[in-house]
Amino acid sequence: MGEALAALATGLWHWDTATGLVTVDAEAARLLGLPAEQVSLTEAQARARLHPVDWNEITGVIQLAVAEGTLAEVRIRIMDEQGRIVRIVRSRSKPSFDRARKAYRLIGTLQEVTEPTPGTPAGRSAVTGDWRRSREAFLLDAGRALAEARSTQEVLRVTAYLSMPGFSPGGLAVFGVEGDRLTIIGHHGQQQGDDSPFSDMALDTDYPAAEVVRTGRAVYLSSPEQYKARYPLTWPLAQRFGRRSWAFLPLTVAGRTMGAWMAAFTYPVAFTPDERSVLATVARMLAQALARRAWPRASGP
Question: Which residue ranges does the record assign to the PAS domain (predicted)?
Fold first, then answer.
């Protein structure tokens, strides 16, 4: 069986979240850019070989497949030590959830596939697999969790730990408005005190969150170069955090913009229409959850 799969350039892999180990056969190891021999990897070691966007996608697709009793199928970009994409593989697996161990377990195949042509819709898309169904499941869970949050701090904590389908922010901040000043209600992914330059900023400042509050329109910045070109005065404040992409979205209640939500990413994000749709929906749910708490001030989660 193994020889037949190898002849088809297809490898086998096994993942058990209880042990935290990913075991691959020789062909799967080769596809991951490792020596062609069976090996057990930690999740961190396996994750280092995969594009971070695709790793996040895998977890969402697995959970959805278990819930629906279907196969989990995703396309995965394999990275080398320098962060370059070396190939794209397709994974097909049958995952299961062990309630006693509270762990997912799956056995699946890896097979190399043709890379999408640059510039085509497939080539531009940052998300793989059955993403739209994963998105719908995520939004249902997020809406339920935000609705159940009992305090502003809990709302912020829920938002900070949302695992978005296909992409996950490395830093979050929620801005409010007091008079003509922009204030920070809470943040996540930064050290204590890192918010000082942003905690009391005039609304006419050349800063994305301030612009969002003034205009009620979202701002998407896909690269540091774009941020620097568009907001040269406040770029030095953001530069030190080492982010690669940013989304600033209005928090609107009853037609009035009450604040802004920032999601910052440690890797480039194209902000496709699907990705913008997810972020906009989360922003609406976040605004509604905060409005139920009368927008009190709170420390970061």
Answer: 1-69
In Å, what is the CA distance from 16 to each residue of 77, 97, 187, 210? 21, 10, 33, 45
Residue in this structure with the two tokens 């021999």, named with its chain if needed: 37
Sign of CA dihedral 134, 248, 227, 184: negative
Answer whether CATH 3.20.20.370 is correct for domain 133-291. Answer: no
Tokens of 291: 């409005």
Contact residues for 128 (Cβ-Cβ < 8 A; gap 6+): 54, 57, 74, 75, 76, 166
Residue 89 near residue 112, CB atoms below 8 Å: yes
Closest alpha carbon to 95 in 75, 66, 73, 131:
66
Alpha carbon distance 110, 26 (integer Å): 11
Angle, vertex CA 42, rays to CA 40 and CA 48, nearest 5 = 110
Nearest of 251, 267, 83, 45 to residue 171 by alpha carbon: 267
Q: Which residue has the tokens 């699907």?
A: 274
Query: Can you point out the beta strands (E) in 153-194?
Result: 171-178, 181-188
Q: Sort residue 129 into left (φ over 0), alpha (ψ -120 to 50) or beta.
A: left
Parse the chain into domains and list their residue ranges: 2-129, 133-291
Calpha distance 108→241 (Å, rounded)? 38
Tens place of pLDDT per residue across the chain (301 aa): 556 666 677 899 999 999 999 999 999 999 999 999 999 999 889 989 998 878 877 877 787 778 767 788 888 899 988 888 899 998 999 899 988 888 899 999 999 986 544 433 444 344 444 555 566 777 787 888 888 888 878 888 888 777 676 667 888 899 999 999 999 888 776 555 555 566 678 999 999 999 999 999 999 999 999 999 999 999 999 998 899 999 999 999 988 999 999 999 988 888 876 788 788 889 999 999 998 865 544 433 3
